[in-house]
Amino acid sequence: MREESRIDMEHARMLLKKKVNSRMSAPGDYEVGIPGVRLFRRDQAQKTEACLYTPVIIKIVQGVKRAVMGSGEYSYGENEVLVSGVDMPGTSMVVEASPDVPCTGITVDLDKNLIAQLAPEIPHKVYSIGSVAKGILVQPLEADILDAFLRLAELLDKSDRISVFAPMIIREIHYLLLDGPSGHWLRSFHMLGSQSNQIAQAIFWLKQNLAATVQIEDLAARVNMAPSTFHRYFKEVTAMSPIQFQKRLRLHEAQRLMLLNDLDAGSACLAVGYESSSQFNREYKRLFGEPPLRNIKKLREEVITSA
């Protein structure tokens, strides 16, 4: 990288840090008035959180985080971006953070329709990213993507321009991903007939049918794969079996229903397909670290603190 480019990126990082950090006075997740864009702040290092990565690009503004998917670990800081191509239950841990120097970042949801629209317009480049299309990857931060994130953050001070410029910048971020090192990997989840796309279709079906009883043979048949092949590729993409994956989806959805729809634990348990409340409570505590009632109360308090 040329010295001039390095200095430009350092300047852009400092500007982005100033824009993002000034908007968060306390730990939490922040909506910013741009659909699909959020900010986050964490003050405590070594704190592990169960999470559900939807298709997203995450730019760490300050600090270091680690994502864990099965046996795979992905560390990323200010010089990388994390990209998720499909829904991926996992855990997230802040590696570097303190109240004085919090871990902060900005996330942009990826739109599968926009990816499908842009992909044919971009030359199909093949990069070496490994033999298996896992559902998540970390790639080095490129100057163009950093610039796009900076311009997106600058819009937060110009609310009258958001409706016009935010969609353009978000479209640009999608284009840069498809045209860069993750492009071949990302488009594989949206390329009909590819094994990655077949797994993506299965994940979509599981999300839409959380309460359904799943048989591997039936799920494999839905995406036109042999059961053994389907099971192998599903685990390669998601780092877990289809049954484990469904269980994680159910628990995350139950948490969402209790937090946002004000369901009690029993109603949320039934809504996502659990027949045994004791099993639901046991597995919920195992994933989120505490029983449903206590967990939701704490999350609500965190939302109030960050508001």
Description:
This protein is α+β, with helices and mostly antiparallel strands and 307 residues long. Helix content is 48%, strand content 20%. It has 12 helices and 10 strands. The protein has helices at residues 3-21, 112-118, 143-154, 162-179, 183-188, 195-208, 216-222, 227-238, 242-260, 265-271, 277-288, 292-306, and strands at 28-31, 37-42, 48-53, 56-62, 64-69, 72-76, 80-84, 88-96, 103-109, 136-140. The protein has a 6-stranded antiparallel β-sheet with strand order 1-2-9-4-7-10. A 4-stranded antiparallel β-sheet has the order 3-8-5-6. Strand 5 and strand 6 form a beta hairpin. Helix 7 (216-222) packs across helix 8 and helix 9 (242-260) crosses helix 10 (265-271). The model is unreliable at 1-5 and 127-132 (pLDDT under 50).
List keywords for this structure.
single chain, 307 residues, alpha+beta, six-stranded antiparallel beta sheet, four-stranded antiparallel beta sheet, 12 helices, 48% helix, globular, disordered N terminus
Binned strand content: 15-25%
Radius of gyration: 20 Å
Structural class: alpha+beta
Give me the strand/helix succession: HEEEEEEEEEHEHHHHHHHHHH
The percentage helix is: 40-55%
State the gist of this model.
The chain is built from twelve helices and ten strands. The chain has 307 residues and is an alpha+beta fold.
SSE layout and pairings?
Blueprint (H helix, E strand, L loop, with lengths): L2 H19 L6 E4 L5 E6 L5 E6 L2 E7 L1 E6 L2 E5 L3 E5 L3 E9 L6 E7 L2 H7 L17 E5 L2 H12 L7 H18 L3 H6 L6 H14 L7 H7 L4 H12 L3 H19 L4 H7 L5 H12 L3 H15 L1
Antiparallel strand pairs: 1-2, 2-9, 3-8, 4-7, 4-9, 5-6, 5-8, 7-10
Helix pairs in contact: 1-3, 3-4, 7-8, 9-10
